[in-house]
Amino acid sequence: MARKLILDVDTGTDDAIAIMLAALHPSLELVGCTTVNGNTAVENCTDNTLRVLEHIGRPEIPVHQGMARPLVRWTFPTPRKEGDQSSRIHGPHLPLPKTSLKARSSGAVEFLIETYRAATDEIALVPVGPLSNIAAALALDPGFADRVPEVVIMGGSHGWGNVTAAAEFNIWADPEAAAMVFQAGFRKVTLVPLDATYQASLSHADSASFEALGTPAGHAASLFVKHRIAAYDAVQPLPGGGHAPIHDALAVASLIRPEVITTEFLHVDVETVGTLTVGRTVIDTQVRTEAFRRKAPNCHVAFGADRALFLSLLTEAFARRG
Fold first, then answer.
1. What is the mean pLDDT of residues 217-238?
2. CA-based, 20 to 30 A from 162: which of 14, 168, 197, 256?
3. Could you say which of 90, 247, 267, 300 is catalytic?
């Protein structure tokens, strides 16, 4: 039986690939998408999500628009600056045809709360943008964490940041929300940070292989991968250049084949007050003896990724038509 999930997205290029993987892979059933301010304004994230779903022939999957700003702080300039790092990697609108599809009338937070209250099957929650919607659901529904069987988060880093020297974008964008999520007591939390996603980057050859599939998803994935490689080579090149991480899709892939990532069970918290380190995921790797552990593990943290398996899962999904 296909595994059910809800994707919480701030749809730019890697979110789009994650959506296509979740919507098309036979091992998954995408129950719905919720959108949040992040890579671009939430209205653009919603429009991009709808464009992706129509393009791949899955217009029936509901989209619910969510939080337009972080819980506490104005992280982003308003309006977003043209040419900032995020817009260079993602842009406000994906290069897909415009859509007449509309988001559902109920908001993302309401949809999350009501869906999990009514659920008779387990539904994984996969947030791959800032965690504002998830934190708002926790604040409004005291039983929310108990109803969600598993949370798979794309975000954070142990080794480095990609928006500051210390912080990864999704966590930095709403650090108070992220701190709430890690402290909420969900039954199982998996974190897929930059440490893992950079090990599963895709190349121009992979982009060409997607295009050769001859499907709408293959064509779109090829466009997004090529765009990401050009942006990364210009903004934050990876060693050797010519390849780029597809962060969000790796989180989705771990629901299909858990072995696509390798994890350690550790304690994770988020810095919310540091002058230089706000938004940093503080991952306690000091596990030599229990005497050194101040807090119990709360998160399965991915430190490794199987690039070949990741690529095969993407290819299997994108060969399909909706």
1. 94
2. 256
3. 247
